Amino acid sequence: DTGVSQDPRHKITKRGQNVTFRCDPISEHNRLYWYRQTLGQGPEFLTYFQNEAQLEKSRLLSDRFSAERPKGSFSTLEIQRTEQGDSAMYLCASSRIGQGGAEAFFGQGTRLTVV
Amino acid sequence: SQKIEQNSEALNIQEGKTATLTCNYTNYSPAYLQWYRQDPGRGPVFLLLIRENEKEKRKERLKVTFDTTLKQSLFHITASQPADSATYLCAPLGEGSGGSYIPTFGRGTSLIVHP
Q1: Cβ within 8 Å, pair B43-A91
Q2: Do B103 and A104 touch (CB under 8 A)?
Q3: Is A98 an 8 Å CB contact of chain B?
Q4: Does B56 touch chain A (CB under 8 A)?
Q5: B42 contacts in A (CB within 8 Å)?
Q6: What's A86's DSSP letter?
Q7: How far is B80 from chain A (nearest CA, A)?
Q8: Secondary structure tally for chain B: helices H, strands E
């Protein structure tokens, strides 16, 4: 257990539905990252927060994807109007800032299946 | 655009031998490079960090090298064990917008250690 928790662990949804995932980072970590991982590929960066500010969101896959981190604590990733191509593992990670190259601690991920 | 290449084919070795995994990157100059281990269905776990001014880093049976001229990192596991079987991911960290240093991953190399 890395201390980063994600909920739910698994989600099956019908195409066209909206889904929301939650990530609780390690409490003293300022940074929070979201990644998507498909089979046989490495984690693909989506967005990140430094405290409550979302500093990079150009890599979000489409305007159907959005993320929030209210008050710099937990974060949510929402996918609207899901498509079958959204089926993947969604990973959250957190780290400290102020330390160059600080290691990222990952959660167990949320596996999304769109049917 | 930035590109990270890791051997896509699985590496099969016998127990006790040294495993060597390769990470090549192009079109940027990372200040740090991280290696992670990922087991099936789980999030990546940090193993080692090496800085651009370091040639080599060791931790127990692990050794990482970083050649900024060749734009390559090598990851070695000595005296390999079946428990080392996993996917290994490299993540160069460059100074993105605002000094972000976001871990950006290769696709990973699967290592299989046979008893």
Answers
A1: yes
A2: yes
A3: no
A4: no
A5: 108-109
A6: G
A7: 23
A8: 0, 10
Q: Which of A66, A48, A52, A23 is nearest to A102 (CA)?
A: A48
Q: Which residues contact B109 (CB under 8 A, 6 or more apart)?
A: B6, B7, B8, B9, B10, B11, B21, B22, B87, B88
- Show pLDDT as tens, one digit a residue, over chain A (115 residues): 879 999 999 999 999 999 999 999 999 899 999 999 999 999 999 999 998 888 888 788 889 999 999 888 999 999 999 999 999 999 999 998 766 778 999 999 999 999 9
Specify the pairing of strand B11-14 against strand B109-114.
parallel
The number of helix segments (H) and strand segments (E) in chain A equals 0, 11
Tell me the chain B residues in contact with residue A111 when contact means C-beta distances shorter than 8 Å. 41
- Give yes or no for a contact between B57 and B63, defined as CB atoms under 8 angstroms apart: yes
Strand order, beta sheet including B109-114: B11-14, B109-114, B86-93, B32-38, B45-51
Residue pair B8/B111 in contact by the 8 Å Cβ criterion: no
